[in-house]
Amino acid sequence: MTRFAGIDFGAKTTGNTVICMELDGHLHFFQSRAKEDADLFINGIIGRYRPSQVFIDAPLSLPGAYTGLSSDFMYRECDRICRAMSPMFLGGLTARAMQLKNLLSEPGVRFFEVYPAAVAEELKLAKAVYDKKSPQALQEFGRWVMDYSPVGLKHSPENWHQADSWLAWFTGWRYQEGLAQSIGNPEEGLIWI
Asked: Which sequence spans correspond to the domains of the chain?
């Protein structure tokens, strides 16, 4: 069986980076700590548990204008379709994600870009279940995940970063089952849902 991880990729030292991965038949959340280097944190977890696939909530490529594929310098086709933020707006986060992919692809880890909000939309989650401004919605999301997850969780998501890492992981599960779909131009960059 392929071991894979879902990552909600946050700012480098905020403590908002979370990895969701199955270990011993249950899903676990690994969350970075504030003031800790999230990139080193990810390297450590990936090095320790060795997933062969990573489904990450971060842009892994630049708009096609930078490689001669299009005239759009701000958005990729997949960003426009999913209504995702521009990789250029995310700047440093995009650069870090691309660097992480480059670094970890060498030992054989494959990276897939995901967008949790598009996954939530694909799953038709109501606003009462997926509304990041609502603490009540996080509780509803947690109950929904505990019922819906194809693999049991050690505990319900305690924050939206854990929730989004589960959605990233769930995209990986869908990929393993042949249910995930890619959006965008493969020559420019894809978002998987």
From this structure: 4-188
